[in-house]
Amino acid sequence: MTNNIKLFTGTSSRILAERIADEYYQKLGDLTVAKFSDGEIQPVINESVRGDMLFFIQSTFAPSDNLMELLLMIDAAKRASAGYITAVIPFFGYARQDRKDKPRVPIAAKLIANLLQAAGANRIMTMDLHADQIQGFFDIPVDHLKSEPIFIQYLENSNIDNLLFASPDVGGVKRARNFSRILDKDFVTCSKYRKKANEIAEMNVIGDVEGFNVVLVDDMVDTAGTLCKAAEVIMAKGAKSVRALCTHAVLSGKAYENIEKSQLTELVVCDTIPLKEQTPKIKVVSTAKLFARALRNTHEHRSISAMFGGE
Fold it and tell me: Which residues, other chains included, contact 227 with Cβ-Cβ below 8 Å and sequence gap of 6+?
């Protein structure tokens, strides 16, 4: 494998990519993205990449142009005889469509995996997939980074007493349990019932929260309906405060308004998706140092799982 490393970014993750490059002590490669009047995209790599080890940093949140841009960058690099191509996707879009939960629907996450491989990616690096099994959709290596070290450092620096972790739904129990295990705290679970997507009909708390400062843990926050409802129910059960840690700040629809009106003390998110608005309740922690370290470990053929206590 080549020792010549180059980092590139598209338009959706430029700020994060610049931070990663700074942590890696390297400038971003020279790449421009042209957009024709009809909306077509054409990335152009303005330097030789023949035989090089390339990292393309691009989150694939909406609109789908971000995904298309990444695919075209990878294709351009493959056709320019790059030695090894890693798609660094801090937020992996369409991850919630990971199975057929009703008839005649796509498994979009699998389709995206096929597209990335067909474009020419040799490796995928991402963070906090909505479902771990998405790694199995790929026939190439997948480095699945975790945001836990970043959030744990934030909590330790915040010196919050009487901590209790909570999952906003049954699907997130594993995440809440991991936080509780690392910090030796208890955790509870919220059980919710939906009438339809993004609309909660009923929610209950399974466990005692009275007198605790509760920390909700989730992989992403979209409309924030679940988090806000969970905070309301938990406070009604006697908690001292409720805050939330969510890796990916999708924040669509009335999310910002919902968060401002909610009983959440704060919402802490990573910079895998840039915020559309600034609000006092939302705090951003950076993933740049973690990604830079993962990139270096990949280059030097060292373990990624060791970064998270895996070895």
Answer: 168, 216, 218, 221, 244, 246, 259, 262, 264, 267
Instruction: Give the span between the Cα atoms of 292 and 17, in whole angstroms.
Output: 10
> What are the structural domains, with CATH classification, of the chain?
5-146+288-308 (3.40.50.2020), 148-285 (3.40.50.2020)
CA-CA distance, 164 to 179, in Å (whole number)?
10
Least Cα distance to 127 among 89, 97, 93, 95 occurs for: 89
Burial class (CB in 10 A: 0-12, 13-18, 19+), 167: buried
Alpha carbon 130 to its chain's center: 8
Contact status, residue 292 vs residue 23, Cβ threshold 8 Å: yes
pLDDT along the chain (311 residues), means of 10: 85 97 97 96 97 98 97 98 98 96 95 98 97 96 96 95 92 90 93 62 85 96 93 95 98 96 97 95 98 96 86 51
Q: Are 9 and 57 in contact (CB under 8 A)?
A: yes
Q: What is the DSSP string of 71-96?
A: HHHHHHHHHTTBSEEEEEESS-TTTT
- What is the predicted pLDDT for the residue at 104? 96
Locate 177 and state its tokens.
Answer: 């349990």
pTM for the model stands at 0.94
Q: What is the DSSP letter of 300?
A: T
Q: How far is CA 69 from CA 66, 107, 311, in A?
A: 5, 21, 36
Residue 31 has a pLDDT of 98
Active-site hit among 6, 146, 192, 229: 192
For this structure, is 192 an active site residue?
Answer: yes
